[in-house]
Amino acid sequence: MKRIESRDNKWVKRLNGLKIKKNRDKEGVFVAEGLRFISEVPAGWEVEAFVVSDSFAGENDISIYEKKAELLCLPDVLFTSVCDTENPQGILAVCKKLNWDEDSVFAKKNPFLLLAEELNDPGNLGTVIRTADACGADAVFLSKGSVDLYNPKVLRSTMGSMFHIPVFQNVDLKDISAKLKENEIPLYAAHLKGDTFPYGLDLGQSCAFLIGNEARGLSDEAAALCDRWVKIPMPGQAESLNASIAAGVLMYEVVRQRLK
User: Fold this and answer.
1) Which homologous superfamily is 2-96 in?
2) Mean pLDDT in consecutive groups of 10 residues from the start of the chain, 260 residues
3) What is the pLDDT of residue 257?
4) Which of 24, 51, 96, 183 could make a disulfide contact with 46, Cβ separation 3.0–4.6 Å?
């Protein structure tokens, strides 16, 4: 275990730098904060280092982390300064980003996919990923202009699900829709002008749903890429649903139809 006490230490500067997207992109790493989140890191996932506070080290067996990667220990105040959360739990991990294999996703039997156009809210994206994981979706595709998957708020909202389901960022929706057609996977748009309810679709076979931006919904260009527009019944007075809720309703209809 390596002890660090100076704010000028290169690790302290690096951890603060990783709060910025361009630095995460440049290094190909991200920071996982909190004991529960770190407990979700799969055994085969590459972790560069674990960082703990003095308090955490005094109350927990930290030898398990030292066996897996470099272990750094910081005074509580210094540890808090490198965290994104206001009340950190005393442990974080610097993890390598994983490049998922898109071809293996499309090679699955009856793929179940979710696409999103410019999903901007970190909490929404994290909830969508967590729900997709719970529903057994095979992958999530995020268009250019969506919030960064490795944004700390997104990561926390996934509750570790980003380790379980492939998420592809900065995708071109035209390219993905073409690939869906090649693989005979229908693409359904969640759209207020839809002509059918999700319950009228055959979702036991391959399927993909496209959801839009929280404020604007789907662009005309993205909606035009879809095979059919689907509406969610809203007998109440609300004009629309939160993007992550809409995605959840659609994904759970797939689950309902595929349950045996």
Assistant:
1) Ribosomal protein L30/S12 (3.30.1330.30)
2) 94 97 97 94 94 96 93 97 93 96 95 97 96 98 96 94 96 97 96 92 96 90 96 91 94 93
3) 97
4) 96
Residue with tokens 């003095």: 54
Backbone angles phi, psi at 17, to 5 degrees: -65, -30
Instruction: Please tell me the distance from the alpha carbon of residue 203 to that of residue 81, in angstroms, as a whole number.
Output: 48
185 and 111 Cβ atoms separated by less than 8 Å: yes
CATH code for the part of the protein at 102-258: 3.40.1280.10
Round to whole Å and give the CA distance between 6 and 46. 27
pTM of the model: 0.93
Distance CA 29, CA 195 (A): 43
Q: Over the range 77-103, which residues count as b (16 or more CB within 10 Å of their CB) and which as e?
A: ebbeebbeeeebbbbbbbbeeeeeeee
What is the three-class DSSP state of 42? coil
